[in-house]
Amino acid sequence: MAPTALKTRSSKSSDPRSWVERLWASLSLRSSTEVDRTGPLVPPLDRAKRLAEALLSGRGEASGAIVARELHECLRTLGAEDRLAFYRFLATGFQPDAKRLRAAAEAYLADPSAEGAAKLAEVADPTRQELLRRMNLSLGGTAALVAMRKELAQHLRDAPELKLLDADLKHLFVSWFNRGFLELRRIDWQSPAAVLDKLIAYEAVHEIQGWDDLRRRLAPDRRCFAFFHPALPGEPLIFVEVALVEGLAAAVQPLLGCDGQRIDEAAAQARAARADTAIFYSISNCQDGLRGVSFGNFLIKQVVEELKAELPQLTRFSTLSPVPGFRRWLEKRMALPGAADAALEKPLKAEDWWQDPAKADALRQPLLRFCATYLTGPAGPKGSVDPVARFHLGNGARLERINWLGNVAPRGIRESYGIMVNYLYDLDLIEANHEAFAQDGTVARSADVDALMVEEPVPPVRARSSRLRRA
């Protein structure tokens, strides 16, 4: 027995290659740029496909992590067309086993038990999801998959077959980026420069005009919080900017104002001490590859708790939000045959109408009324027609106030004629508001918003109605 064992060890030691090199030889995955590994030359795209298939073999976790790393490195060398071909390869292949799926479905129909349902769900999962999980084994695998989904988004319209791959990635990200893995951090002027630089780059609502502007937004009467994930170190997933003020803010320019002068730290601290309201004036998602994975609802609720603990005098938590869909909605309405509001079209086309007090005053009431109608009207298949409204109303906020010329920056005028909205987060009513909106689209709103939708007082009509009821 001993000589045999000795011979075996001698045979293994006679091969000078490492076990990793022997793995590549067994997979025949040598690329045309790798002269130090045995096996036939393989075009990069074919090599990526073979690596993907190898990941689903029965190899152990250690070798699987190495194959995953090699696959990601291979994908980085591919040109755009070859990467798209690889994505099609993932999307159209790696489907559930049709025979096993049919058998499981028939078994469940014959005996609809919990065990049968679990088995059916297991068999219905495409092997593509397991492949993506194994691609996540390598260092940096999560970031690579997030980048993959970002790139996929550019092709979904022209290549609908990629939607299956996109859906699988989203499905996995919802699990991998759930609230239990997220870390809330406050960002201030002492945060790493790389993180501050990303805030400037990722700001999606009110552009940050360089470092002086950023410093103003991080002053003592401001707060900024972001969610981070351990798999994406140093990369914020979403961040929120907060102003500490007295009363509801009606316009965003005073909150953003950065006149280039040195910030008076003592005055800003005094404003923070007097503040009774926290205004969430910008919420920006940072990772395009994580679209559809919800972070904002968790972020707002946790930031409210953080602010309450730090500044117990705060009694109101509200947003100052854009209405990005309003202008498109009103233009479509005015274009309808016989539209009564078509008369608005001409004054709205006047150059810089918002800077002319007379013109702006004439448009104020009709535009506020139409905006209230837009935000409270019948919900579509996805709820409110406005994406920002849908987000805040779905989180349990109340439509509190609609502000005239709240944002006179070019983007604000272009999207919503300068109108901005306060969504109020009343902590005692959040759950009830959320349930009402989720069940039938009921929009929780203030009496002030309701009053905007009344074109003109109609007491005579009300009086006649009153007499009829008495009769």
TrEMBL record:
A GO biological process held by the record: fatty acid biosynthetic process
Domain (Malonyl-CoA decarboxylase C-terminal) ranges: 180-426
A single MF term (Gene Ontology): malonyl-CoA decarboxylase activity
Organism this protein belongs to: Aliidongia dinghuensis
Protein known as: Decarboxylase
Record-linked InterPro entries: Malonyl_CoA_deC, Malonyl_CoA_deC_C, Malonyl_CoA_deC_C_sf, MCD_N, MCD_N_sf
Domain Malonyl-CoA decarboxylase N-terminal stretches: 94-177
